[in-house]
């Protein structure tokens, strides 16, 4: 009887430990960052000038091949006109502005997604009366 009780106890302990492990979050499989973790005041990239706030998410993540950034362009700032070397996506979260693409200028607004391809040139700036908040995604090289 004692062996049966001991076997039942060991069996139960084994399954309880498996269930407990299954419910434990494995934080090595993800990284959670908030704007406040990565916000940095910067001038506009690519010689754009002015005041911006850059958010370089997951900059220290090992082997991450994708850059995921957010930028708040303040009035008077911009991402300067530059030649693109890899696919890059701009997504407008809020505000209004203008984008110059291969010499053409067009308006951008919330919900717009712009894919810039290698060999194209572009820049982006907010309108004078608002901040322009964008997400930028591209492959790191």
Report on the structure:
With 141 residues, the protein is an alpha+beta fold. Helix content is 18%, strand content 43%. The protein has two helices and ten strands; from the N terminus they run H-H-E-E-E-E-E-E-E-E-E-E. It has helices at 2-23, 35-38, and strands at residues 39-43, 51-57, 66-73, 79-83, 88-94, 97-101, 104-108, 113-116, 121-126, 132-139. The strands form two sheets. A six-stranded antiparallel beta sheet has the order 1-2-3-10-5-8. The N and C termini lie far apart (67 Å). The model is unreliable at 6-26 (pLDDT under 50).
Radius of gyration: 24 Å
Percent strand equals 35-45%
Mean pLDDT across all amino acids: 86
Global morphology: globular
Work out the number of β strands.
10
Distance between the termini: 67 Å
Low-pLDDT regions: 6-26
Q: Please give the share of residues in helix.
A: 10-25%
Give the class from helix and strand content and strand pairing. Answer: alpha+beta
Question: SSE string, helix = H, strand = E?
Answer: HHEEEEEEEEEE
Order of strands across the main sheet:
1-2-3-10-5-8
Q: How many DSSP H or I helices? A: 2
Q: Summarize the main sheet.
A: 6 strands, antiparallel
Oligomer: single chain
């Amino acid at each position: 009887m004692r062996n049966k009780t001991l076997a039942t106890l060991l069996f139960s302990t084994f399954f309880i430990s498996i269930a407990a492990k299954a419910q434990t979050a494995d934080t090595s499989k993800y990284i959670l960052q908030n704007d406040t973790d990565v916000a940095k005041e910067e001038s506009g990239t690519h010689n754009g000038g002015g005041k911006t706030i850059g958010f370089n998410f997951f900059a220290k993540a090992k082997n991450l091949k994708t850059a995921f950034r957010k930028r708040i362009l303040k009035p008077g700032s911009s991402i300067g006109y530059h030649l693109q070397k890899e696919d890059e996506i701009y997504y407008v979260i809020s505000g209004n502005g203008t984008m110059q693409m291969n010499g053409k200028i067009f308006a951008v607004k919330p919900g717009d997604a712009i894919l810039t391809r290698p060999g194209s040139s572009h820049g982006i700036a907010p309108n004078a009366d608002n901040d322009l908040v964008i997400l930028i995604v591209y492959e790191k090289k």
